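User: Okay, second chain of the day. Same drill as before: sequence in, structure tokens out.
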Amino acid sequence: MPTHEVKPLLAQLPNTLTVARLAVIPSFVVLAVRADEGQSLAAALVFGIAALTDQIDGWLARRWRVESDFGKLADPLADRLMIDAAVIILWLEGRLPWFALVIILARDGMLIVGSKFALSSSYEFSVSLLGKTATWILYAALFGMMLTAAGTDWPLALFYAGLALAVAAGAGYVMAVRKAIG
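Assistant: Same drill. Structure tokens below.
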């Protein structure tokens, strides 16, 4: 941890990266929709850069001790929306099965709606290692799908691993919130 104060403008960088990730979602969607059967280097690069900002913003916030309530809510929301957009588009392109779409959207919808209840309780928002691992595996799998041709197996296998971890992490969050709200 740094021993000096972080300048106020620099202290806003983690939240700025989160807002930037939210802001590039429409550009990503346009690039991905224009892709050839879900394969697009441009869409994959935007998606990959967004994934990197997820890692960087959290690391900076913790390192500089500038974590905020906004960041604790907006950061996972940005991840959910970026991943959900990719899953929807890849499902429309026939690259993901319908049940994967349903599971991801149901889990993320539950987490977004559930955050309303968590806010009214003593639940302290924090991302679990399982949740972060699931997010990173999903980012990697979806990135791989956008770079490879339809029918390439490894990104789908990686996606299923991330999906299983995401469901487990979602269940863990639900149990923690239920315990906090009594």
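The CA atoms of residues 14 and 78 lie 13 Å apart.

User: Thanks, on to the next one.
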